[in-house]
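RECORD TYPE: protein structure
NAME: GGDEF domain-containing protein
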Amino acid sequence: MRNAASSAPGPGLRSPLARISRVDGRARTHATEPGMSLIARVRLLVVVLALTGLCGALAISLPAQRDALHAQMSAHDRDTVTLLALLIGHGMPEQAALVETADGLIANGHYREILVRSDGRLVIEHRDATQPRVPVWFTRALALQVQPSVATLHRDDQPAASVAVASDASASIERLWRETRALTLWFAIGALLTCVALGPLLRRLLRPLDAVRAQADALVERRFTQVATPGTVDFVPLIDAMNTLARRAEQRIAADAERIEALDHLVAHDELTGLPNRPRFLELLDAALELDEGSRARRGSLAVLRVADLAGLNRSLGRNGADKLLVDIAARLRGVAAAAPGRVAARLNGSDFVVLAPDLKRPKKLTDEITHAISALRALHGDGLMHRLPVGAAEYATGEPRARLLARLDGALAASEHTGWGDARIVDDDSVLPARTDLAGWRDALLAALDRDQVRLELFPVLSTRGALLYMEGPTRVLIDDLWYGADAFVPWAERLGLTPRLDLAALRLGLKRIDEERVPVGIHVSATSMREAGFVDALRGELQAHPDAAARLWLELPEQGVVRDLAAFRALCLATRPFGCRIGIEHAGREFGQLGGLHDVGLNYIKIDAGFIGNLAANQDKRDFVVRICDLGHAIGLQVIAEGVDHADDLAALGEIGVDGVTGSAVRLPEAEQP
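PREDICTED:
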């Protein structure tokens, strides 16, 4: 279903660029898990460097110390073996004396073994099997082996005795092990102290990056901050680039905001007179007619003024003269509206102006004020002017259907035109129908229509810009009191009564039936209220399962404003319908389009640009640029872009040049060959 009033532009128009910045923020849901921090990486690097340095130091120092010890012990062994050889050579002492000498050497000189042979027999053998108190792997890795030093004594040129001495390396190996442990400990302490000190130091050095991150978060939230230039020169290019980006984004969004604000006013107001236009006035009228539950009906007055034979005035006064007349009339009516709070003056179309006065219960008072204000224009435009300005007025009560009120007002205007003298006519107060001025009346009427299947679809074509049929759009109509009411009349009441899910399901069944019968794609309007009902989504899935072939040709569209208010419910609806091949779209789009960029991945297929952006597009460059931007953004995320409310042929041609994918409106006609 569609609420026509929701298509009118409102004061909440916001820049799509600003919305996209928020979408960019939502896109981070796909980011990977955070990895190791920079401080942890640097600390790991310090540990690796410390281990590398330790291994390098040990690889250089241990072999050098081992070789030095080997040379020292070899020299020590040679001296000892020479001493023993001299003792023996000056006269073979007693064996007891030699043993005593060997024991002394071993006790004081750390010898592993001393062997003395004489005449082929072993005279002295002393061995020390002490093992170094170090890990076996260290001993093996050090590989410190000292070969025994041997001296041979001759007698009559014949070998008489031999002496062999080998130093004990255990003490040296233990000393090297202690030095290695001390070196390792110092490296570990140094690495630990460095890692501890790196934390505060790096945090201090990386403060500019924290500021940049805060600046980026502020950009997402549309806050534009500047970061001071840091002392670390490596960060200066990054800081300068981010500051430049923030300044440019601020300037761009400020310019867009001004442009969108101007476009918002332009879309909601008449370009010539500056008064609110028809869509904007209908929004205000709907708000005035709304009846709060439990409150008494309020009454007010509504008057319409028509510039009769405007085409003739254009010919007689010229374009500029006719425009001046319209501007003068608008100024006088604006003065009438400014006389009391809550009043509104608007221009409905080229020749019709309207004044809403909630403060006046008697329409006669309003018509008198209008007639008095307009009479001041006689001096400017001639005495015959009043005959060209018929005025009709009506009393209204809150809760009265807008369509019925406007029909009564048209009757009053027709009566005023019929007199030909510019006299105001007021519709009979008895025609204010109270039967539908409360919730109970609308509940009975809507339930009766649903029970009697008095619901229908009024189909309108949606064509591609080349004229091919995309689908038949089917707004819902409900029969009440022998009148077919459009969605703008009954949807507000149905939402308050909780009946929109039933009405939407009834429209869905009619659409699926039409598809099954005629094999033509049909588009159904779904209200945001129904979307949020879990039971509705389940019932919708059941209907689609019952008509799988028709479901593949079904187009479902929801109002942009309702979707933006509950993106989670819209995602759930998209996920529920995606298996059936339905096409999901958003109607009345444009004001909140930036928030919809992240929805194409759940099944969003198309958007329909609000009619407020389409009217008079061919002659309005601001509107044209805005629609071009919407098309570019929509196509960038793979969406079809359709323009709604195309009422003029020149706008239709301009939309084809812009690059929209489809159009609908009174200027769009289905070729006979395509008619279902």
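COMMENT: Residues 3 and 635 are 27 Å apart (CA to CA).
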